[in-house]
Specification:
The complex is a heterodimer of chains A (192) and B (712). Chain A contains 9 helices and no strands. Chain A is mainly alpha-helical and 192 residues long. Chain A folds into 3 domains: 53 residues, no CATH class; 68 residues, Cytochrome C biogenesis protein (Helicase, Ruva Protein, domain 3); 58 residues, no CATH class. The radius of gyration of chain A is 29 Å and the shape is elongated. In chain B, a hairpin with a 2-residue loop joins strand 2 and strand 3. Chain B has 712 residues and is of the alpha+beta class. Chain B folds into 4 domains: 190 residues, no CATH class; 181 residues, Four Helix Bundle (Hemerythrin (Met), subunit A), CATH 1.20.120; 122 residues, no CATH class; 106 residues. Classes of the chains: A mainly alpha (192), B alpha+beta (712).
């Protein structure tokens, strides 16, 4: 398996901070530096993610199923390749055989995809790739999500920091514990 | 007959135009200050008796004009109803001199489908749209006394939309166009895919939803134009929106059920542009139903709500534009034509009109927003709206991306289920978290302590269920033995189920807490207390039931990760095993009916060595249209659906080729929809009057005694 996960699995050199802190090395229960703890937690998380990803690397039948669900039948039915249900479909049987041959040969996922794209055109892929302009398909919704979250947090902060409207003379705003008590009472009375 | 239909359509157009223009004139005169009505002579001084008389006469005149506009709107309904009635009669009379009937019906078509011919093709469905719009307008104009001025504005907006559809029907897609030359003896027949019982009710429901969003839009635009004071318009609009939302929900899921039951690919949602088109207004409509509470309770989000109402209406029209224009390739290509240009212009015009009035009168929508805490229901509604709108944007983005890609890089790409699964599922899961937390948050401010107290047990329950689903053996059923590290889809499913449990438990705890309080006060049993609880605040508790329905649907969606399928050629006595089921081919044969010829297989279904059912998947060949269609046989249980499709015959030996799908938890989707609809109906029921509290004598006595002692 190639890609970023391999780098994660490479052994890491021992952090220098441990050389400088023999007390930490001797006593595992002693309090660790926050930076070290964060780094270690990050390593554990990455390792878990790597294991998670490697567990997905599977046998040819599973790969056939996975890749076959990432492609479209080109007969015009607009269905996922492995879901095309037309008997005598002019396209899907041949495409499935090609896919099975590629998977059995041990071609990587990207090689199989490239082969299909070259033969049938880019519309054979059921979703945009993560290369070139196609990346925009995935990036834009998440950018919108982040911007939206940021905007709402900003809006909430603005609304929260607005000054309390002035009230008539002689009236004192209720605050703190007293206000909470009134709130609880109001909720009990009305929250039905 | 065709002449009567054509005349009715022309009459409807004339009435709509009159209703629109007269409505504008009436409102213009009613809105003018007295000085202008009196010809500008009164400027600044007290009007003379003659001038007052002129003003009164003009005002009365404008009211009378307004009344004629209202009646013209009502008469439009009668005219469009007549046209629709004529088209249906023509279908039943096999009047193939009308091109629409020739292309969408045939003599042997069963009665219910002849009725459904009304919405089975381009022209008929536009007529049906127009009929529903005029029917909504009819109800609106009858109920005008609730607020005559606001209703008059809404009536004018409705007439404007109605004119567009009637222009289309009269000049671009005429349903009563006559066949030139020799009239064929029989029609081309209805598309086989549409010859299914649900197709008789799916389009009306969907259209009731699409068209219905015109009403909230009409009220919103009317309120914006007239600078409506107060929030009454939002109360009126909310009820209309809920009814419309229920119809659209019903329509969307009936469509999904139809796709599942007819198309024979084993799924219910293919992310086809036309499916997406129905989902987008549903998402913004749902966002509006939530954010409208902010306006009602706190007077906030007035501008945002205005945009949400407009976006919902606009997206409903955009959906129709997508269906009809052929601008984006879709499997629903049966209604492509040049009327896409008409829709494009209509979309532009409505956008311009709305934007113009929004910027002209937006100062009227300003409100003083003040939030006390981030941990409040207001905040949760803001995030809820963000996620709904973002989901809508994602669907819109995915739908248009092939076109955008073509413009930018010169080649089209496919945006199918894998894209939406990657992008939309995480957002939907976030939304589910909010659905769980939202009801526990109070308006203005919630203390973290109370949130922790109310949230802890549901969270523990959800985590416990997740662990249970992971450690149980797979042999227990599709959703058991879930190992999220095996596949990302399992992880999503596990998260969806756990979060659904979380929502269910928070909803249940809300019912329990409320029921317990009532039970304590009234001495009633828990169930009776809960019924009373719902009746006291139908909107809130109906809403919770809708939430529960949504999680049931989500659990059904989560089941898709465990689906299995298998394809096999089966001769007499051949076996196929899928999951816990064994299918044995007992027989296969064919049949002939007036409308179609059919081939079918008879399969005995065994589970655990015991025969539990016999299934008969069918494939039909429709004679008039010369098209084939599958009728899968589906055996539904709570755990899974056994779904068998007769794909065809092996041409060499005549054996049937069958495809079996084992679709997990699908029944939950349909059950969830029913629950959502029940919740919506409950939310529409008016609240029971608040109980009058009469102090009990037993409690008064000590109070009096206390006062006597303290001297109060």
């Amino acid at each position: 398996m190639s890609g970023p996960w391999c780098r994660v699995l490479e052994p890491h050199p021992r952090p220098e901070t441990q050389e400088l802190r023999p007390d930490v090395m001797k006593n595992p229960n002693s309090k660790k530096m926050p930076g070290q703890r964060i780094r270690r937690s990050a390593h554990i998380l990455l390792l878990c993610a790597a294991i998670f990803a490697l567990l997905g690397a599977s046998d040819p039948a599973t790969r056939f199923n996975e890749i076959g669900h990432q492609m479209m039948c080109i007969c015009g039915c607009n269905q996922i390749l492995l879901e095309c249900n037309h008997v005598g479909c002019p396209a899907s049987d041949g495409m499935r055989n090609e896919l099975m041959a590629s998977v059995t040969r041990g071609d990587s996922d990207s090689l199989v995809e490239q082969g299909f794209v070259q033969k049938y055109g880019p519309t054979v892929l059921a979703a945009p790739t993560t290369r070139g302009f196609d990346r925009a398909a995935y990036i834009i919704p998440f950018v919108a999500l982040i911007l939206g979250f940021g905007l709402i947090v900003l809006v909430i902060r603005t609304w929260k920091n607005r000054p309390v409207p002035a009230i008539a003379d002689g009236l004192h705003p209720v605050r703190g514990i007293e206000l909470e008590q009134f709130r609880d009472q109001a909720r009990k009375d009305t929250d039905l | 007959m065709a002449e009567i239909g054509s005349f009715a359509l022309l009459l409807a157009l004339a009435l709509s135009v009159y209703s629109f223009l007269a409505g504008i004139v009436a409102l213009a005169f009613q809105n003018r200050p007295s000085s202008q009505l009196a010809g500008g002579t009164a400027g600044g001084r007290i009007a003379s008796r003659e001038e007052s008389s002129v003003i009164t006469t003009l005002r009365q005149g404008s009211e009378r004009i307004g009344e004629t506009a209202r009646r013209a709107g009502i008469a439009t309904f009668a005219a469009v109803l007549l046209a629709s009635f004529v088209l249906v009669i023509c279908a039943f009379r096999d009047d193939f001199s009308i091109a629409y009937i020739l292309h969408h019906s045939n003599r042997d078509l069963p009665g219910p489908y002849k009725f459904a011919v009304l919405w089975s093709g381009q022209e008929g469905s536009l007529l049906f749209w127009s009929l529903l719009l005029s029917a909504y307008g009819f109800v609106l104009r009858l109920r005008y006394k609730a607020d005559p001025r606001l209703f008059a504005y809404a009536s004018v907006v409705l007439s404007g939309v109605q004119i567009f559809f009637l222009l289309l029907l009269n000049f671009a897609a005429h349903p009563f166009a006559i066949v030139q030359g020799t009239i064929p003896a029989d029609g081309n027949g209805l598309n086989p895919l549409l010859q299914y019982p649900e197709m008789v009710i799916h389009p009306p429901m969907l259209y009731l939803g699409y068209v219905g969003f015109t009403i909230p839009f009409a009220f919103a635009l009317g309120a914006l134009i007239m600078k409506y004071p107060g929030e009454k318009w939002i109360h009126i609009t909310r009820r209309w929106t809920m009814v419309t939302w229920a119809f659209l929900t019903c329509g969307v899921f009936l469509g999904a059920h139809w796709a599942y039951s007819v198309l024979g690919w084993g799924g219910y949602w293919g992310w086809d542009p036309v499916e997406n088109a129905s989902l987008m207004p549903w998402l913004t409509g749902t966002a509006f139903l939530h954010s409208v509470m902010m306006q009602e309770k706190r007077g906030m989000l007035k501008m945002w709500n205005m945009w949400l109402v407009f976006a919902t209406f606009w997206l409903a029209i955009l959906g129709t534009f997508l269906t009809r224009s052929g601008i984006i390739s879709s499997v629903h290509a049966f209604a492509q034509s040049s009327i896409g240009d008409w829709f494009a212009w209509f979309l532009v015009i409505t956008l311009v009109v709305f934007v113009f009035f929004f910027f002209k009168n937006k100062s009227h929508l300003r409100s003083e927003h003040k939030l006390e805490s981030l941990v409040s229901r207001e905040s949760s509604f803001l995030f809820n709206n963000l996620l709904f709108v973002l989901l809508c944007f994602t669907v819109l983005w995915g739908t248009w991306f092939p076109k955008i890609s073509e413009l930018v890089q010169g080649n089209k790409v496919t945006v199918g289920a894998p894209f939406y699964n990657r992008v939309a599922i995480p957002v939907a899961l976030l939304l589910l978290i909010l659905t769980a937390v939202g009801p526990l948050l109070a308006w203005r401010k919630t203390s973290l302590e109370s949130l922790k107290r109310n949230f802890m047990w549901p969270a523990i329950g959800a985590i416990a269920i997740a662990i249970f689903l992971m450690i149980t053996p797979q042999s227990w059923g599709s959703a058991f033995g879930l190992k999220p590290w095996k596949d990302i889809s399992y992880l999503y499913s596990l998260m969806a189920i756990a979060l659904s449990v979380l929502v269910t438990l928070t909803v249940a705890s809300e019912f329990y807490r409320g029921g317990r309080v009532i039970s304590k006060h009234t001495g009633q049993g828990m169930f009776a207390s809960m019924v009373q609880l719902i009746h006291r605040n139908t909107r809130r508790y109906g809403g919770y039931i809708v939430h529960f329905g949504v999680v049931v649907v989500i659990i059904g969606f989560a089941g898709a990760a465990f689906n299995l399928d298998k394809e096999q050629e089966m001769g007499y006595g051949d076996k196929m095993t899928i999951g816990p089921y064994t299918l044995i081919c007992r027989s296969y044969t064919d049949d002939d009916a007036p409308n179609y010829a059919s081939e079918w297989a008879v399969l005995d279904v065994y589970k655990g060595g015991k025969q539990i059912d016999t299934m008969t998947p069918v494939r039909r060949f429709y004679k008039a249209s010369r098209q084939t269609s599958t009728m899968p046989d589906i055996r539904s249980t709570l755990n899974e659906d056994l779904y068998i499709v007769f794909e065809g015959l092996n041409q060499d030996n005549g054996h049937p080729i069958l495809k079996a799908h084992l679709n997990a938890l699908v029944m939950w989707i349909w059950m969830g929809v029913w629950i959502m609809l029940i919740g919506t109906v409950l939310a529409l029921i008016p609240n029971a009057p608040a109980p009058v509290r009469v102090p009990a004598p037993a409690r008064l006595e000590p109070a009096h005694a206390g006062r006597a002692v303290t001297g109060d």
